[in-house]
């Protein structure tokens, strides 16, 4: 074999040469492929105008250098197979030549501002398997031939503005594993053919709030490989199919916030792999399946339905369970004991049911409990002692039960603790002393129990609500109270507190409500009131206080309710009190004397001064004697003095305003740059908006700004623009907060919340751009204001009949409920009123103007007080001038809207306040039907209308805790609508 024949040697040489040649050619070929790819990428770079983030895309001698252009490029065998341009602020259309990169299998263009329709250019990427276009500005329909991308395994079109139907063609993408379509503008239907995607593992259609009501769940149950099925808040109706129990692979089921009805199929709880069930806020009813074999379940949230029967014993076998939320249902019977020993339970929520029996003492002992909520049931016995055994507990809510015994000792050593709500029980004993100093403690609501002991000197500085009314607390109000600096509500009425009112109490800067009535306090009231800038309610009635009424009370800018009745106060009523705008004044049963300030000498204060022997009035009044006139003339010397002083003052004011006006003009000329803050895809430019804000387009104006109807393009799209102007430049902090809130609001999609598209701002004005709703606001229909010109008032009766009004009530309630209960952190509206409820062409309610305008007002700023203090007739009694408000103020205002809907009356006219009127009617036990709107009072609707009227009464209770939550309101209204 070693000896070569010449011929064969020649052959070998030839072969070798040929081989070399081939190698050369093929190399040249592949080189040209790589050069081509590099050329395409460089073209892409220049198409994108060479943005800074692509500065490392530099061609070099090595023809595969582009394979190292990370993170945008991935190569396989020196050929580009992946292109990721994620979160790079691109605003240009998708380049039409993108698929000149023939080997692309992955394209990720998420988090940009790509405009236009779904780019068919992708069809040229015949190997494409992974396409992510989420969070862009794409519009129009998903194309009917999208199945051209037949190799697609992953398709993410979430958070765009795609509309129309979801095409049948999607059901032909047989390779698809993952389909993400959440948060778009689809306003058509979903094809049953999605059920043909036999390889699908993950399907998300959540938050498509404009879909036509639909239910294809029985088709989807054929997806035997599906692990995740999320269709939250997308207008699902009808029942859950029994075949859902055949989806063997299912791990996560989230169909929350829809209108699913009927019972929960027993098969669901038998699915071995199931780990999450979210079916909260539907209208499911009936008993829940008792047999549970899905031992992998880690979260069950069925809250806000109408489920009945006992809680299954079997839940106690779910050792992986971390969340058990069954609140707001009609469950009855006892809580199975073994649930108390679940080793992984973190959130336990069973509030608002009909549960009875006792709580197992082991709760908290075997798992790192964070929330424990069992309020509004009929539970008896003690609270479990170990609730904070692991030091993780954030909230304990057990109000409105029949619980007895002491608070759990573990609360005394629980640094995580933030909320304790145990009011309306029969609890007793002292408070574990360490509880007061838990650093995050912010709300302690324990009214109406039998707690004893004294208040501590030192308290968590985070504490904002302390409500301990109707207990047996005793001792002094400690001087250390001055360190409770964040306290907003302090209600300690009806206890055994004694001693004097410490001067330190007056230094609390955030206080809104102070009740210390019905105690044994004695001595003088503190005279030097320095910090109560935000105090709204002050009640010291039924104590043993003596001495004068401090004149400085008259300087409290926000005081609206003052009750000092049934004490031993003496002396004159300080004239300064007359400056206050008091809704409620009670100085009865004291020893006051002298003249009543002239401002109080009218019928509104008829009952404010009873049983004070020495008081008199200057004008005749039925209840008070007349003062005998004595002094009153001012000497001419004083008059001259006052005059000179007055002239001096006005001169000063004049020159001051001159400078201010000049400064204002200067500033206005200097800032002409509008800044656009957008969080969504827009099909218009900011200049369109700015030029559209003209008198011609003005459609309304209110306390917080003017509203314009602005056409934005030739296709007839219209937006609503709200212009808010402030007189002063905003502080940077406030500006930031404002934009943060804009961001939250514009990310929210809910069928009953007006969509905020963007905010355009200049130093001292802001333009908030919203979707435009053609039927405008509820108050216009209800109170016949500013009729749309094409309507006559006789249309009014036809249009806003009771079913429509109920539909509006339900919609608005759902919107509010979402903001209160499903946003983290919760969003409080702060200015609910019928003019903020807008109506679309089908009279669906959408809530507008979530608290933004209000934010621009500085805390405690006097001049703008009226703007912050809400709209007369709508704001809750506890309303203060602070931006940190409890969501129950919205519940109150919503109650007022329910009253408007049922009675047809305005929230406030010159004479009456609707809430007061309705409560009088209610308390006198007049027939409810007499209060209802005569225009729509048809016999067949009477029951429903009375029912909603009663709900309105509940919502407008004086004490926030007596009002239902919006979750409960939705439940009650849903039931009403379904009867
Ligand atoms: C890239 O595509 C070319 C044809 O265009 C093909 O010859 C080559 O094998 C592909 N490379 C890879 C890594 O798929
Ligand atoms: C996109 O824009 C934001 C805000 O202007 C900026 O912070 C960010 O760096 C930009 N990203 C890129 C990749 O250019
Ligand atoms: C959807 O499901 C229904 C009922 O199960 C069935 O009759 C229908 O053929 C299905 N549609 C498709 C397209 O698979």
List keywords for this structure.
979 residues, alpha/beta, Leucine-rich repeat, LRR (right-handed beta-alpha superhelix), Phosphorylase Kinase, domain 1, 23-stranded mixed sheet, disordered N terminus, binds 2-acetamido-2-deoxy-beta-D-glucopyranose, glycoprotein
Through-space gap between termini = 100 Å
The geometry reads as globular
Report the CATH topology name of the domain at 776-979. Transferase(Phosphotransferase), domain 1
Structural class: alpha/beta
Q: Give the assembly state of these chains.
A: single chain
DSSP summary, beta strand count: 52
Spans of at least 5 consecutive residues whose pLDDT stays below 50 are: 1-7, 21-25, 631-635, 664-671, 858-869
C-alpha Rg, in Å?
A: 35 Å
Helix segment count? 14
CATH architecture of the domain at 776-979, by name, is Orthogonal Bundle
Describe the largest sheet: 23 strands, mixed
Which superfamily, in CATH terms, is the homologous superfamily of the domain at 776-979? Transferase(Phosphotransferase) domain 1
**Bound small molecules, deduplicated:** 2-acetamido-2-deoxy-beta-D-glucopyranose
Mean pLDDT: 84
Per CATH, the class of the domain at 776-979 reads Mainly Alpha
